[in-house]
Amino acid sequence: IEHRGSIVGKTVAWVGDGNNMANTWLQAADILGFQVHVSTPRGYEVDEKLVAGTRKGAGNYRFFSDPLEACRGADRVTTDVWTSMGYEAENAERMKAFTDWCVDAEMMRAAKPDALFMHCLPAHRGEEVEADVIDGPQSVVWDEAENRMHAQKALMEYLLLGKLA
User: Fold this and answer.
1) SS3 content of the chain, % helix, strand, coil (to 5)
2) What is the pLDDT of residue 17?
3) What are phi and psi of 126, to 5 degrees?
4) pTM of the model
5) What are phi and psi of 129, to 5 degrees?
6) What is the pLDDT of residues 58-98, one digit of tens each?
7) What is the three-class DSSP state of 38?
8) Structure confidence by residue, pLDDT tens digits, 4-62
9) Does 108 score more than 70 pLDDT?
10) 8-39: buried (b, 16+ CB within 10 Å) or exposed (e) per residue?
11) Whole-angstrom Cα distance, residue 105 to residue 149?
């Protein structure tokens, strides 16, 4: 909203692990009315039970085996680390499996010209995203992190005080 206005009717490309962040994008799409194009390596897909449990089911979700195709025409391109906490023992295996799922300039060119790149941070440049993308003009990762900080502060206030100030 801060950079491009409403997300209703837009397309978000998720490239990478079908982890908790991918699931959150699917839940948000169901609530906020946008499409999610998901591309993950085989064996790292999103939780199909979660997709089926949304109000629209798979109506706002499409799977792409090719990450470049998932990005084609997208308004937002987003990813997360390949090895989340708790999966460190799988790191070497994941590095091999995810090689083609590194968000790069070609994927951003496949997206809309004014597409934004997002990442929940921390990021590993050269793994899930190339440095020229995360540090480039389409990246809004620092604004995204700042907004998350404000949301966390509000949640802490509510939990500590039992009310909003």
Assistant:
1) 45, 15, 40
2) 97
3) 90, -10
4) 0.91
5) -150, 140
6) 678 899 999 999 999 999 999 999 999 999 999 999 999 99
7) strand
8) 999 999 999 999 999 999 999 998 998 999 999 999 999 999 988 877 766 666 678 89
9) yes
10) eebbbbbbbbbbebbeebbeebbeeebbbbbb
11) 28
Polymer length in residues for the chain: 165
Nearest to 145 by CA among 119, 165, 163, 164: 119
Per-residue pLDDT at 164 exceeds 80: no
Burial class (CB in 10 A: 0-12, 13-18, 19+), 92: exposed
Q: How far apart are CA 94 and CA 110, in angstroms?
A: 25
β-pairing, 11-15 vs 76-79, is parallel
| Contacts by 130-136, CB closer than 8 A, 24 or more apart | 130/102, 130/103, 130/104, 130/105, 132/104, 132/105, 133/103, 133/104, 133/105, 133/107, 133/108, 136/105, 136/108
d(CA 152, CA 137): 26
Closest CA to 102 of 128, 138, 72: 128
Burial classification of residue 62, based on how many CB atoms lie within 10 Å of its CB (0-12 exposed, 13-18 middle, 19 or more buried): middle
